[in-house]
Design a protein that fits this description.
Layout lengths: L15 E3 L13 E2 L5 E3 L10 E8 L6 E4 L7 E6 L2 E6 L2 E7 L7 E5 L5 H8 L2 E4 L8 E7 L7
Antiparallel strand pairs: 1-3, 2-10, 4-9, 4-11, 5-10, 6-7, 7-8, 8-9
Length: 152
Amino acid sequence: MSSNKITISNTNDGPVVTLNGSAGSTTGSKAVLVDAGAQITDIDSPNFDGGKLVVKIQSGEQTGDTLAIMKGTLNGLTLKTIRRHTVLRLGKTDIASVSGGTKGIPLTIQFGAGTSLELFRKVMQSITFKGKPFAAPRVISMQAIDTTGLPS
């Protein structure tokens, strides 16, 4: 009988964000979802406790462009300002702090404890864009950063 020794190295892989195409167009008065079908996977992170989502306009940005989070009864998400800080809530539970989204500053969502992959995905699918009518097309990116700090 012969045998071989196999060494397995543990590697931490970053999350993978998949955006499914065009968000459509906006007339300037209404926000549109950036990507209602946005997906995220992370082969070695079952949750995103302490993770982060950064959404930015990569090109074509115009004065007045806004990135935000759709809130309401469809997704259960709400935004609340507490002492000049914006907090994202799911129901009555604070799930993240929110900053930016205007004046060229990326929309940054810093998640707290208890953030599942499904909740992270729900927030990704709830990102909106609002801009001036008849302006040039924009390219919008989403970057996920997992619990260990690895970016997509």
